[in-house]
Amino acid sequence: MPVPVLRGPGKGCSMDSSTKKKLLDAEAIARYDPFSSHNNIRVTATYEDGSGEGELIVTRESLNPHGIVHGGCLAALADSVGGWTASSAQHRTCVTVNYAFHFLRPAMGTNQKIRCRATPEKTGRTLSVYHVSLTDDEGLEVATGNFTFFMMDKRLNGTTPERLERTADES
User: Could you report the per-residue pLDDT of 86-123, keeping only the tens digit for each?
Assistant: First the structure.
């Protein structure tokens, strides 16, 4: 996974003294992660403490026959946000090796977005473990899980837009 373009603090970006937020260029990520883009999943921010956030924009195609957001969409959201967050934190690519996921309550199709927060539990040279929490529009937690990522030796490419564009053309 190539690196997304990191943006500094911007409009609507809250910062406190302990954790600085870095906004991510969702369009840049979409070029390298067509699965997430196709499924309306977007990584929105990473933080200096190694955590990150993202969201699923709920559409008719996200729903199961009962009008509830499909469990596969929720798991894909958690995996994508966790993986991009782990990669961003260590500037290395990663792949998922294991996860345990718990559905706590239905994520109703009336939601506009499902949000995901990924928090590191262990960041290591070979394995990183992230806890994820998914919430609906009302802030109710709908699912949680733990994801283990194998951190690959391949470094992420540079973070400047010029380098990202050059890499996109080369692939």
Answer: 998 988 889 999 999 999 999 999 999 999 999 999 99
pLDDT one-digit tens code per residue, 28-42: 666 778 899 899 999
- Whether the CB-CB separation of 164 and 2 falls below 8 Å is answered with yes
Instruction: Please answer whether residues 137 and 113 qualify as being in contact, where contact means their C-beta atoms are separated by less than 8 angstroms.
Output: yes
What is the chain's length?
A: 171
Backbone phi, psi, residue 165, to 5°: -65, -45
Rounded to 10 degrees, the C-alpha dihedral 170/168/40/149 comes to 70
Residue 68: how many CB atoms within 10 A of its CB?
Answer: 20
Element containing residue 134 per DSSP (H, E): strand 127-135
